[in-house]
Structures are given as structure tokens and as C-alpha cells.
Amino acid sequence: MTTTERTAASYFLPSDEPLGLVSPDGTAVKEPELAMPADDVLRQLHRGMVTGRRFDTQATALTKQGRLAVYPSARGQEACEIGAILALRPQDWLFPTYRDSMAVVARGVDPVEVLTLLRGDWHCGYDPYRANVAPQCTPLATNTLHAVGFAHAARTKGEDTVALALLGDGATSEGDTHEALNFAAVWKAPVVFLVQNNGYAISVPLAKQTAAPSLAHKGVGYGMPSVLVDGNDAAAVHAVVEQAVAHAAAGDGPTLIEAVTYRVESHTNADDATRYRERAEVEKWLERDPIARLKRYLTDRALLTEQAEQEIDAHAEQAAAALRERMNADVALDPAELFQHVYAEPTAALRDQAAELAAEIGERA
Ligand SMILES: Cc1ncc(C[n+]2csc(CCOP(=O)(O)OP(=O)(O)O)c2C)c(N)n1
Ligand SMILES: [Mg+2]
Q1: DSSP secondary structure of 82-113
Q2: What confidence tens digit (pLDDT) does each residue in 87-124 have?
Q3: Residue 178 falls in the annotated catalytic set
Q4: Which residue puts its alpha carbon closest to atom 19 of ligand 1?
Q5: Quick one: which of 96, 131, 309, 345 is 20 to 30 A from 204 by CA?
Q6: 217 is a catalytic site residue
Q7: What is the mean pLDDT of the chain?
Q8: For the Dehydrogenase E1 component domain, which residue ranges apply (predicted)?
Q9: Residue nearest to atom 23 of ligand 1 (CA)
Q10: What pTM, to 2 d.p., does this model score?
Q11: Which residues contact 20 (CB under 8 A, 6 or more apart)?
């Protein structure tokens, strides 16, 4: 029987408990339902998470130095951000949100270009076609629709491309998410939806967001395989995303993955999370740290030496220093650029506005 013939609700149902491969204490999960990634992939996941966290810390520091207007930290969510990206093939596309700068950098986009949005200079500071990364979306869930439309079009053209849409727990309540999930399943579009359930939508906890048994359960109603995974277990996130990408690439349609994780920092540097959650809750999640657990697993198996760790730290530090230096340089912006990249061919209205602005600037000069 092919997967296209399997339509019984039970086939689509997620597990009761999140799937995992490495326990919070760094030991292997017994009788896992997933295959452990190869040693090399595990090492790459560890390295990627260390580098990603250092980037994230640096970006937060840049807000304090006035070099970034705002930064939504993904600290604590490294297993999702890195695990998912490393499971993509070069030809696949990423549709990220404001939370996912770490993932965009991991995909190979220049970090300064990534942070251009959060500095307030450009809506998207990078060329989406260079690393197959769509612009980061701040309006919740709009990227899910972009991903479905893009993936459906790619498949219609006969291209072997899978779109990965990242979204938050809060974004699952948006009408856009409903439309995206529904049509992705109806069209069997090659899309993977990865919900990073980090417990909160700004100050709104999950319990006030949904009455569903899990967010993954929502996929059943749309008719797509739904997976609940430990979102702080990079090996498990990598395994389920890789499986979902293969499923989509084979023409078997979308998958909805809910990764259970936690937003360690406030929503952004402009938010104060101590006003709506207890320190004890944060402490509990810090014990489930994604980097510490994979490090322990690798060290216990002699897959990570002290020397290798030092080299990874030094490399992450170097990258952060280079980012700091480049972000500290003042940028000269040309207001005329405001009208670029809006349409492939500018409309008459846009041309008029550009001319009006140029004339106004000319008068003041
Ligand atoms: C359509 C829309 N409505 C409201 C907002 C304001 N807003 C920004 S972030 C956010 C919370 C989103 O929470 P979640 O989807 O869980 O993502 P997280 O920030 O936790 O990564 C809200 C309500 C928005 N950006 N877009
Ligand atoms: Mg959230």
C-alpha cells in the first residue's frame, strides 16, 4: 500500500509523547522510533548549535549597543533552528519568520544581510535566490501560504523542491495557517510545516492558545501525517524533518511537525518575560538545554574531543567578533532604494512616488 492510499486517521496521528533520540541527560533514548543520524551529522548539529547560539547572543548584545532596533532571540530553540536546516537539501527552500535569523544564517546567508531587517534598513537584506531562503515574515503565518504556493508551483513545473515553513505555536491560530495546511494537503504540495512550540506567543501561554491535545494533532484534520517531536533534541528534529522532506519529495505531500521547545529569552529585547512567567519554569527548561545534551552524548561516545570543542568555540567567537565589527560600521542608505525590489517591473504609481521623493530630497539638498 502506498502512503497516498493510507488515509485512516490513525495513520496521520502523532505519538502521545514527543519522539526523541537523545534524552535530556545525554543518554540515548531506549527503543527509539527514529533512526539516529550518522556521527558526522551529529557533530555538524553540535557545531551548528554552538555557532548559532553565539550569533544569537551577539545579536542580542547589538540591541543593547543601539546597533539593532530589535532582536527576537531563538536561544533554547537551537535544536529546531539547526536540526531543520541541516535536514534540507541544497535545492529546497526555507520560509522563515522573524524568530529564525539563526536558521537563515545556518542556511548560508551573510549574518549582516540577515540583520538588516532588524536594524530597520531593509525589509529583506539578502537575495532570496542565493541560498533559497524567502524573506523573514513578521506578519504571523503569511509565510505558510507563501511556502504552499511556491511548493505547488515548483511541483507543477516538475522541479524537485521541498519548502520548509517555520511557524510558532501562536501562528497556528491564524486563519492563514488553516488555509495553508488545508491546500497543502489537498494539492499534496511538497511542504514541511515545522511548528516551534516554544510555549508562548509573546505573553500568551499555549494553554490559552489552543484546546487541542497537541498542535501536531491539527494535521490529522487536514489529512496529513503529523509528528510530535522533542524540540530540544537536535538529532530527533533532524531525523523527522529529513523524513518529512523525503516524503514530500517523493510526491506524498506535506507533513505537520510540532517540536516542543522553549523560548529561554523574552519575546524580544523590548519584552520583559518576568512579568508573565516564573523563573522556576525557565530553570526547568534550562535543564533540557539542546546543546548540553548533544555534547554529553557525543563526549560519552568519544565523538567530541576537548580540542575539537575548543576549536568550535574559537570559530564561533571569531564569527561573532566579525559580525560585531561589521555591524558597528555606520551604513549610508539611499532613500531611492525604497522602491527597489517591490515589483520586477515598477508600477506607474511607484515610479511617480520615487520621482516625488527624489525631487523633495533634491530641494532640501
Ligand atoms: C498577523 C499578526 N498578528 C499579530 C502580530 C503580533 N505578534 C508578533 S509576534 C506574536 C506572537 C507570535 O507567537 P508565536 O507564533 O508562538 O511565535 P514566537 O514569537 O513564539 O516565535 C504576535 C501576536 C503579528 N506579527 N502578525
Ligand atoms: Mg511561540
Answers
A1: HHHHTTS-TT-EEE-BGGGHHHHHHTT--HHH
A2: 999 999 999 999 999 999 999 999 999 999 999 998 89
A3: no
A4: 201
A5: 96
A6: no
A7: 96
A8: 49-318
A9: 201
A10: 0.96
A11: 29, 32, 34, 229, 230, 233, 236
Is 278 in the same domain as 363?
no
pLDDT at 43 over 90: yes
197 CA closest ligand 1 atom index: 16
Asked if 295 and 359 sit in the same domain, the reply is no
Number of domains in the chain: 2
Whichever domain contains 265, its CATH number is 3.40.50.970
Ligand 2 centre and the CA of 5: distance in Å? 34
Tell me, in angstroms, the distance from the centre of ligand 2 to residue 49's CA: 20
Rounded Cα distance, 87 and 96, in Å: 15
Question: Which residues fall within 8 angstroms of residue 62, CB to CB, at 6 or more apart?
Answer: 68, 71, 115, 324, 327
Ligand 1 pocket test target in 78, 98, 140, 210 with most atoms within 8 Å of CB: 140
In angstroms, what is the span from residue 81 Cα to ligand 2's centroid?
Answer: 14
Residues touching ligand 1 (Cβ under 6 Å) are 99, 138-140, 168-171, 198, 200-202, 263, 267
Q: Of 96, 51, 328, whose CA–CA distance to 194 is shortest?
A: 96
Ligand nearest to the CA of 73: 1
Residues near 111 by Cβ (< 8 Å), separated by ≥ 6? 55, 101, 105, 319, 323
The CA-atom distances, in angstroms, between 321 and each of 66, 82, 101, 314, 328 are 17, 21, 17, 10, 11
* Residue 262: active-site member: no
Answer yes or no: is pLDDT of 125 > 90.
yes
The Å distance, Cα 346 to ligand 1 centre, comes to 31
Are 96 and 132 in the same domain?
yes
pLDDT tier, 1 (very low <50, low <70, confident <90, very high otherwise): very low
Nearest CA to 168 out of 273, 83, 91, 77 is that of 77
Give the domain extent around 341. 335-365
Ranked by mean pLDDT, the top range of 8-22, 258-272, 322-336 is 258-272
Is residue 44 predicted with pLDDT exceeding 90? yes
196 Cα nearest atom in ligand 1: 21
